[in-house]
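tool_call: predict_structure(chain=1)
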Amino acid sequence: MNEMITAAVSRPARVAKDLVHKHDADQVLLSGLRRLAEDEFLIAADWTDTSGLAATRHSHQDGAVLLTETIRQTFPLLAHAGYAVPFGDRLLWDEYRYTLNLTALRDGGTGGRPDLHVRCHDVVRRRGRVSGLSLDITVLRDGEQLATAHTRFSIQSPAIYERLRGPHGDAHRMLELARSRPLPPPVSGTSDEFRDAVLSPTDARDRWQLRIDTRHPMYFDHPSDHAPGILLLEAAKQAARAVRHPRAGVAEAMETIFHRYVELDSPCRVDAQLLPDDQLGRARLLVTMHQDDRLCFTALVSVAKEPVG
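tool_result:
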């Protein structure tokens, strides 16, 4: 596959929504894919109209939400169009880290048409099918680097996924159960809109309950049997913001590990711990999430030394 893949699904042309596992075509951020070598790709993104992504409409401080959702969409695109992964296989996030160029994002904003240069490595194949993949990604816009990222995801067939997930693997049942329970109140000041708040307060300043709104138009664009990874990443950002409030700061970098699924049928505890500043003078926080006394997610968040905006 050496030509750009395009499909006129919205304005402007984007790839077909099925290729990025979206139900809402207006949330598709990718517009093309070109294979440069066996495991190297150039992916075209389009940020000229991101109004379909509710959680990014008011995120003027940084491009982390937009960047992460753009990168998340590269997983299925590369899996299906680059490595012949069948539709219906499940893509599971293992780890993710990113570093933003805040100066470039501040000066140029989060619009335009960036390119993602992707190098795939540590490709694992079982019985002739890809079951694991690592990506190193550089995001450029008009030749200027906006961000770098690394991620790894694994791939499971429907049969294996259903066997491992058991009763938790029924997305419609889990969503129905989650929606039968009251949604906890949001923490104020951690997001620009209450709808996008993913933390709920507790008696402790550095502890929250994860707030999972299963009707959120971006996080639950399509049925899911667990809390999506991008929601957990946003929760880590909001936790860092809450701990440091009212001091300004932007999550310039993050290193995360997805240990196990965050289920929809029991509370998930979010804790944040301040760590010593890093060598660049950035504040650092360790954010962890536990459910039923089991560690589900960890994130090391680095906050820019100087306010950006």
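agent: The chain is about 20% helix and 35% strand. Proceeding to next step.
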